[in-house]
Amino acid sequence: MSRLSTRRALRWVGIMMILSLLLAACAPGAAPATAPSGDAAAAPSDELTRANTLVFAADMTDLITLDPAVVYEFGGTQTAGNIYETLVSFNPGEPELVPLLAESWEIAEDGDMWKMTFQLNPSATFASGNPVTAEDFVFSWERVIDINGSPAFLLTEVCGMSKGNITAVDATTLELKIPSTLSPQVCLSVLTFVTTAVVEKAAVEPNLGDDFGQTWLNDNSAGSGPYTLAGWNRSVDVTLDANPSYWGGAAPAMRRVIMQNMPEVANRQAAIETGDADIVQELGPEQATALEGNPDVSLVKVLNTILAYVSVNATMPPFDNPDARQALRYAINYDNIITLLGGNGELVQEIIPMGFAGHTGNNPFTQDLERARELFANAGVTEGAVIPFTVATATAPGGVDWATIAASIQADLAQIGINLEIQQMQQSELLTKYRAQELPMLLMNWSPDFPDPDGNGTPFANYEAQSLAWRNSWNDATAIDLSRRAAVEADPATRVALYGELVDHVQNNGPYAILYQPTRVYAVRNNVAGFIYDPNDSPTISFWLISKQ
Known about the structure:
Strand content: 15-25%
CATH class of the largest domain: Alpha Beta
Number of helices: 18
Largest sheet: 11 strands, mixed
């Protein structure tokens, strides 16, 4: 079996198992979501045709960068994850980690450290043809630390990486030492995320410049994966070309992938109906209903690991007062939001999503306007108060516009005399301001970076990790302590109990009003085979698995 075939088989087994645990519903007559056969996956001809070109349409207004060291948004991880590779891949159905660029690894105690030793696959090469070496990984990980972008905490906080504990023992042996207070198993899960992917040092180093090569990597690629970057037309599309000399096996059947930015859900429906798009992401209930029974199209519905929530800044009035945060949670009509989703979302009010250990199923908040009014008054927020409320001009998880959800919450608070002043902006601008801690209240969504409860525990609760708690300016000692203890706890029962405590503490004290966990609806043309959506993987869609019948 080829390297690529092995990768496909492992992912396929795991994905099928996780989807059966979550929710996977295909319309009758859907094309089978199986990996292409060896013949279908053979190296494509030189000629680009519609038959070997895949058009994927989605709302990609969150696309800010293609640099794997800083990419963190859904559009970016979807793109970069098809270009760059990590040491290991997660097989969520087992659950177990499987080899990718590392063909084996060992974990051993080394004084007050864990020593993690990885043996790289000696056959692995970059698209340039140069071998993937341990020094390339040292360069890549140290670059993430130097840039210190949003996902850097995964390396520095969860894995405890520093520039002094990453070593290239020889060309194919990589050594990482992490403090014994951290969990090597959780760190291994982190190493499946695209931020930890390898870039070719020989290609990137001459182009570092003042921004460590970020600008260069937005228009060039330096990965080992099955695709290379052909071009990024900002706000319009990203084009990927198959790597003809992919080290893992035959080149992908889809010679070219065009990822179209299509923010309007009605346009995505039209594109899949006409065949202008082969796959579209995130349909709303109206569009899904309209496509049911279409003989050329199949619907794929998967309960996602994303959480949609109201996010507030814990140092900005009025939400610097915990009573105001609690008032907000009691003011919202959650049932109305679920109704708006038309079956594309489940009520979840905690930071751990369904399907993960530590999820409690506790949804303690129902709309109680009198209690909300009282709590707001305790916080000094009285009738007539105006609060800026920022939302993206984009589709929310579940296929409904963020503006629609915002209007529902606005109407809720209007009943107690609180005026939410809705401010809409492009998603990329919103994310920039959110990361700069400039917004008092906004709508946001988050999906764990790796399939472990710590994928949400640390970001939502640990201010020092400089992720979501930091963006919300919520520096809470209890939350930090619980998240750290839960992350490294070895006993499963004790770990679940710790996450239960963390969930309860964040629910009642944190800067979030968690709204729902969505069902993501895809439409796929019936001549497309091998489409698999894996909510626990980066990328969520592996284009190299896809072929056309």
